[in-house]
Automatic annotation (TrEMBL), chain A:
Residues 408-429 are annotated as: Disordered. Pfam families: Hyd_WA, Pex24p. Coiled coil: none annotated. GO terms for biological process: autophagy. Belongs to the TECPR1 family. It comes from Mola mola. SUPFAM superfamilies: Oligoxyloglucan reducing end-specific cellobiohydrolase (SSF110296), PH domain-like (SSF50729). One of its GO terms (cellular component) is lysosomal membrane. Residues 64-125, 137-170, 805-866, 877-910 form the Peroxin/Ferlin domain. InterPro entries: Beta-propeller_rpt_TECPR, Peroxin/Ferlin, TECPR1-like_DysF, Tectonin_beta-prop. The keyword Coiled coil does not apply. One of its GO terms (molecular function) is lipid binding. This is Tectonin beta-propeller repeat-containing protein 1. Its main location: membrane.
UniProtKB/TrEMBL annotation, chain B:
Belongs to the ATG5 family. Residues 11-104 form the Autophagy protein ATG5 UblA domain. Involved in autophagic vesicle formation. InterPro entries: Atg5, ATG5_HBR, Atg5_HR, ATG5_UblA, Atg5_UblA_dom_sf, ATG5_UblB. This is Autophagy protein 5. The keyword Nucleotide-binding does not apply. Conjugated with ATG12. It is found in: Cytoplasm; Preautophagosomal structure membrane. Keywords: Acetylation, Apoptosis, Autophagy, Cytoplasm, Immunity, Isopeptide bond, Membrane, Ubl conjugation. One of its GO terms (molecular function) is Atg8-family ligase activity. Residues 184-269 form the Autophagy protein ATG5 UblB domain.
Amino acid sequence: MPVTLLWAVDVYGRVYSLSTVGQQWEQCHDTHIEFKRVTAAQQCCWGIACDNNIYLNVHASDLPIRYQEETYENQRWNPVDGFSDRLLPSDRWQWSDVTGLQHQPLDSFQLPSSSWEWEGDWYVDENFEGEPTEKGGWSYAIDFPATYTNDKKWKSCVRRRRWIRYRRYKAMDSWAKITSEHTTLPDPFSDISCGGWEISEEPRGQLCLWAVSLQGKVWFREGICHHNPEGSKWEEVPLPAEVVQISCGPGDLVWAVLWEGQLIIREGISRDCPRGTSWTVVDPPSPDVGAAHVAVGVNVVWALTKDNKVWFRHGVNSHNPCGSSWISMVGEMIMINIGLNDQVFAISCEDWAVYFRQGVTSSELSGKTWKAISVPRDRDRSNSSASTNSQQSAGCFFCGEVGAQSAVSEMESDTEKGSTDGTSLVPEEETLPGDGEVIGLCASADIPLSQSDGPDDPKWSNVDLAEAQGQQAQTGAPQDSADTCSLSSVATYTLVMEDLYGVDERPLWAWVSGGGCSVNSHSQLTWFNTLVQSVQSLSLSVSPAQTTAWRRQIFEQLGERTRREMDNFRHYEQAIEKSVWLKKGTMQWWRDWKPHKWIDVHFALEQFSGPEGNKDGILFIYYNFYEEKKHCYYCILFFSLLCPNFSQFSLLPITVTILVPVLNDSKHTFGIYTPERTKQRWPIRLAVASELEMHDWLALLSVSCCDSRGIQGPPSHQAIWSITCKGDIFVSEPSAALEAMPYPTPSDQMFWRQVGGHLRVVECNSVGIVWGIGYDHTAWVYTGGYGGGFFQGLASSTDNIYTQTDVKSIYIYENQRWNPVTGYTNRGLPTDRYMWSDASGLHKCTKTNMRPPSPHWTWVSDWAIDYGISGGTDREGWQYAADFPASYHRHKTMKDFVRRRRWARKCKLTTTGPWQEIPPIALSDVTILPCAAQSSVDMVPLWAISNKGDVLCRLGVTSLTPAGSSWLHIGTDQPFKSISIGALSQVWAIARDGSAFYRGSVSPQRPAGGCWYHIPAPAKQKLKQVSVGKTSVYTVDENGNLWYRQGVTPSYPQGSSWEHISNNVRKVSVGPLDQVWIIADKVQGSHSLSCGTVCHRLGIQPMEPKGQSWDYGIGGGWDHITVRGNSMEPPLICLPSRRNPLAPAPQSPCNTEVNSNAA
Amino acid sequence: MADDKDVLRDVWFGRIPTCFTLNQDEITEREAEPYYLLLPRVSYLTLVTDKVKKHFLKVMRPEDVEEMWFEYEGTPLKWHYPIGVLFDFHASNTVLPWSITVHFKNFPDHDLLHCPSSSVIEAHFMSSIKEADALKHKSQVINDMQKKDHKQLWMGLQNDKFDQFWAMNRKLMEYPTEEGGFRYVPFRIYQTMSDRPFIQKLFRPVSPEGNVLTLGDLLKEMYPAALPNQGEQKRYQVVIHGIEPLLETPLQWLSEHLSHPDNFLHICIIQAPTD
């Protein structure tokens, strides 16, 4: 969860913010201005100052806010002057916008406000649709308006070129006044509320800002988005009556309070109309006492009446913004505000403190209790630091007394234990007659008693504390952690509070805004008890560092103990014999041959330990034939086929293809690949009854496979990472022979194991830095753990496993056909596809029957029309075509008889894995310098492309701090989509228009490099991805072609031309040895065409970097691979790669020999 | 990147090379050869010496055989202490293999508990686990477990199944995060200097002020003599599982990672070698 801020204003007009991980209110820096009210979003905060002006505070982020101004210079050819700026009278302006309709000379561009600055001067865009132009950036056409081309022809009569200038928002992290530009407002504003950022993703950063003036009018701020944070102008919104206060939620909920005490609700708010269309009036909770204040979230409305009572509106959601009824809540408040996730903040009229509503969840939106946020302000802390210190030092000085206090509480709880626990212990002691040593509890119970003589007056608060803890433990209920913290710290807490506020007065709050504060019911907040928590978190947060002396000592000494006590005695007999271990179950198995069907099978995994302690195993799958139980037909005994002596457990990767729908109910199926099956690209498919069972088996099989291969712990730095189209993450340990010449290890022999988490992209390098990008574009860094997900217990590391979330959209299509009578309807031809279907049209998918991909996914939004589909849509989201299936376009033409539109619904996965989030910038691509394992580079260059297309360079990335510290923004003229950095710091990138760029002079001394060199794409192709190895540069275009950059030399790193290597390629990954791995698009398997197969380029040598042929590996549903960590040089001597599976494992001498020898 | 899980594995798979010799006084039909075995540190003598018994019975007449017991340099070895504790306490800093004398006569009733069958070991082991959980969680975790879960713990130890044991023992090692540790740390301190077999008292892993308490804090309160005085030669070694953790090691971590399967942290305080 990223760190976010809660904003508040005290009664003196000072603005403070409180971080979700913070423990004090921080006063806003540049505050000569006093504020009345603030309203926050995650990226900014708006406020009404006491001078009645509106101010905006945009939070600084690594991504600058910059806006590209552009204008076109138009010229016409005439026989006398050639091309000149003398145009025909009917022509467009000499300087115009892209359409030619607007007159736009260079000097007509003004900065919108004093918060902006120009980045540089105007310059000509030298590129045209990804291609460099001849000279001066001109593109030519027959006439205006027409199709422009790059090259000048004999009939080109007009030409134009684009001029670009960037401006940048400079007033970050400070309050910038919003000047009331063209419209002069009749009266000052009295209330303000922002929200609406969930209504639409386009344009980015769109906000709805509503304001109320003193005369009760409502105004809406137009045009606020990421590159225009100030918005453009105020628009008055017509009203039924005068408004006193307004509240706007993150979604489409807007409520306001009328002077008369009723409430009004804005209706008709949508993507196309964020202002809404009309108002509906709702009666206040009680007719006598009108409403005074309202606050809305996504699905909640809270209100205060004029007598300060708190009310919760029942039944509010996007479809029913009015809700159904009022419910009275506890507490008396003067104002209330809803944060993100419908969390509630309020200011009490009793003590003017900010309260947080605890226990608000999506199922219980009204929450449980009010809890005061009781952290000090930064000023308070500096004032009272002396007393705080003395408090702490006093605690140290009087440690004896404190110890005695705890003894009292121990005594108290001991007596309690004697009554409860004693009974359970007695029977066990009876089984050991005569054991005089089991004195345990009885002996120890009276020891604290003797010690407790010290203090004469026991501190009863401490005893209460013990009881409170006891009760909590007994109920065992997973209480809110904040609750327990405050309970456990009752005694110290009150003391500290007095101390802190004894110096300064208590803060009196006037206004709070949680719109930028992302907390939820699970958040561990540190707002409720300050000192105790900080002490704990200090001492505890230090300990997990793997490098602490005591931990190192234990690791070292255990190693030494092994050497001392075991290494010389390995030939001794083990005291405990190892036995065979078996797990059995029943499953269903998909019979690949006729009749194709699911067959009930028995499934047995037999594991046994070898004399060396290594484990082997065999997996049996069999079914009973003709109910003849004795006649067991072993339908598959893979491992005997593979390894006749069973010495190797050659189960290959287990890939999960969850939920294959069969009949009505869905099965939980998974596939098992063996090398043979990998060649066929057709796994053994098995189904079990429940997801839990499936995960049990998968975890068990995976652990067994790892055991038999001696793989345990986290993946090595050299590991190859890959991702399936389901987002599952797999990792394989490369052998030294993987890149050997001429006989590398066949790719189908590679063993893949799963790692918890859900990602779309993963990239690594050979010092163990691994980054991933989720489907929701969140950036994640690998923590060095293993397991997570369905791996429980020992298959998973204890440290370094964190909660990971991902959000993706599920799409369905609404299809319609035109008929002459009724126009477009949902009645199709009998031959047509389903009117609600998936993309292919083959499967019926309706809004009601679609389910999230697995039970771990939950819906987090409602169905909404998706306007972002490629090809564009009309205003209602439709795309038109002549017939199904066809290519769709956005405008209806005469020839179009069918149309479709895409509906999207977001679902969210919550899982665990060795990944930690890197907020806040969403990424679309990332690349890490694939340095060789030996090198001790301190800073590792890491480049990324933001979701928006910005190029970013991460600073502070080292093998110890793989997350780095901050982003450095690299300027580009257009958005980018792919980037890669080679082992020699050469950076290549692909722009959204499909052309390539090379970044000049990147070096360790100059990590951001110099400037971009444009490199045209191969003819008629748009590139989409690039990967750079040690010297090789490979790209993939949108038509699946793989290109190799010819002529790259140290003196001419841009190379000379593209050489076609292969088609049928989705993605490429080039490693630090210039090894090339791809995801092939379609590969023929034994049963079907397999989409997404890992392939390895064979025959790559220093003199032949393009290689010769492909070797096929794991496949069917693979989406991404990175080999950029594998810098293991292949052995120089070429050994036959196919290891003889019959070679006997080295045997240890048998026991009798040992004993007789020793004798 | 060493994981704390590796510590659990190392602790579990600790082995002591042992040489069993039959006591001179036993009557045998022919000379008994010594028997060499790797004993698991975390197990119990009588649980892992079936082979030893079988080996020596081959040379003895059935009528001369009484209950088997073990002795090291004159000290009868208490089977109900974990093997690792016996070794650390009696035989640290000696030459390996550990030489144990096997007796079949003159069972020292005043020193040792009888162990007629492995069910006695099981009862002892389970009672230790229950006592430890009473200290850690007021018995809530162990009482929530089913009979078969208890059996799994025992079978895990008996058959040296690390995974099987820890799949269940994991639950016994959990604690509410906000409390920072167990209620009390189950520990036993063995020392030579007093008649009491071991020290066991109530001790919390976190101080009332919220500070993490360490091994040093524990010893300071329980057995200050074990701590080296300033500027003085180290007199005592504090040994857990054959290693000497630093005194600043947090006690809670030790309890989670260096406890024996009986869930107690067994700490041996022995004389430092003089050389």
